[in-house]
Write a structure and sequence with these properties.
Length: 440
């Protein structure tokens, strides 16, 4: 078994072992309602979140009782509720860790371990519960002290049925329609309507009195117009810089052939985004927040070389839909320079290698780390088109920014003529064999 089969004992043991400074080993009945703040002191919990934790602890206790009584109907209802809740969340609170997540793991870890592959990830399986159990036992967010031999064995690649991702907006609209159907007489929060009743008619005396009141009011004196103060001059614009482009280390979790385009791959890439970030989704197999990226590398780079590898991703280009699939980033690659009019996609092509830094780590050109990148590059301003001609590789196979190829930045003082592309932790981005290549 992965953990002690007695759920209550298992949870206490896990808390004592993992958080000795927060949970006393002498306590036989720790205050779980207030344990989250002690276990995760760096996390702030709102009143609503504390209420959610209390409710989930109650639900987990109900599930424990149902499991003990082997009440399959109640167990199925609670597991279905939990699985649906986790479909759009990394943790029970969304992205914040809490003691409720640990309680779910302690209770359901032994249960998940006994499930068949079909019960785990089949068409009627509990995909999101399985993903949550794997996430809690392995994530640094929780830092649980569980020996590898005691962890629940989960093969993240063994997915028997891939459910359609839940769209939060569609789910919200579905619930709204359901509520309206259950209460059709509700008037959207407005005042109740009374048929045939309008404003009461005014009598002649009332009109005369109102007129008298109006005439009796003194006229307001006109205020003197104040002279308009001149608007302050706008702050000088920052000089143009390739740091406007959001370059990061990306981790390709997996890549497949595009179903509608022979020249494209569709990659699932961890770019270090926070859960819920726009243009991202939750990867069920790993629990990571990821981007879907289409790249024209099919036929230029073997598909096997696109699996489980680090790359440099351009993360603030405006998303584009490529043959029916929305692409939310770009993979940086090098290819030989060609004369104008020649095929620039003829190959060979080599992906830029950022080294071993974590996904999401900032990547920038040495000497040009002059500010934060823009959230989304405005296509009309052609920022990418302005700076990309300067992206090149050196004789040492290092990726660099060549100022001489970008007139917009020439003449800026203190800038290197050739700035190497480096990671925030100091690694240098390289290619395998291409010298003097274009990088895009």
């Amino acid at each position: 078994m992965a953990i002690n089969s007695a759920p209550e004992t298992s949870l206490l043991s896990l808390l004592y072992r993992s958080y000795p400074a927060a949970i006393s080993p002498d306590a036989t009945d720790p205050d779980l309602l207030h344990a989250s703040g002690k276990i995760f002191p760096q996390v702030n919990f709102s009143v609503a979140e504390s209420t959610d934790i209390k409710q989930w602890l109650g639900t987990i206790n109900g599930l424990r009782n149902a499991l003990t009584k082997d009440d399959k109907s109640v167990v199925g209802n609670i597991l279905g509720q939990l699985n649906s809740h986790l479909a759009t969340r990394t943790t029970l609170l969304g992205s914040k860790p809490s003691v409720a997540d640990i309680a779910v793991y302690a209770l359901l870890g032994p249960v998940v371990e006994k499930w068949t592959p079909e019960e785990r990830t089949g068409e009627k399986g509990y995909h999101h519960i399985v993903r949550h159990v794997d996430f809690v036992q392995n994530s640094r967010l929780f830092s649980l002290r569980i020996p590898d031999e005691e962890k629940v064995g989960i093969d993240v690649n063994d997915v028997r049925f891939a459910p359609k991702p839940v769209d939060p907006k569609e789910e919200k609209e579905r619930k709204k329609k359901k509520a309206a159907a259950q209460n059709p007489d509700a008037n959207a929060g407005g005042k109740p309507l009374v048929v045939g009743q309008g404003k009461p008619e005014a009598k002649d005396g009332d009109v005369a009195a109102a007129a008298g009141e109006v005439s009796a009011k003194p006229k307001k004196e006109k205020k003197e117009k104040k002279e308009k103060q001149p608007k302050p001059a706008p702050a000088p614009a920052a000089p143009p810089s390739p740091s406007m482009i959001d370059l990061r280390i990306g981790h390709i979790l997996r890549a497949v052939n595009h179903p509608n385009a022979d020249s494209l791959y569709v990659s699932t890439i961890d770019c270090g985004d926070a859960p819920g970030t726009e243009n991202t989704s939750l990867d069920e197999a790993t629990g990571k927040t990821v981007r879907t990226v289409c790249s024209g590398l099919n036929g230029l780079i073997p598909l096997k070389d696109m699996q489980n590898r680090k790359i440099v991703a351009v993360c603030n280009l405006k998303p584009v839909t490529m043959r029916g699939i929305k692409s939310c980033a770009m993979v940086l690659a090098a290819s030989p320079r060609v004369a104008e009019g020649e095929d620039s996609h003829g190959g060979p092509v080599e992906l830029v290698n950022p080294g071993d830094g974590p996904a999401g780590e900032r990547v920038y050109f040495e000497g040009w780390n002059t500010g934060e990148p823009e959230k989304v590059l405005n296509p009309k301003k052609k920022v990418w088109e302005t700076f990309q001609p300067g992206f090149t590789t050196t004789d040492n196979l290092e990726v660099a920014f060549d100022v001489s190829a970008v007139p917009a930045v020439q003449g800026q003082e203190g800038k290197p003529a050739m700035g190497k592309l480096i990671t925030q932790s100091g690694g240098t981005c390289t290619v395998q064999t291409l010298k003097g290549a274009a990088v895009r």
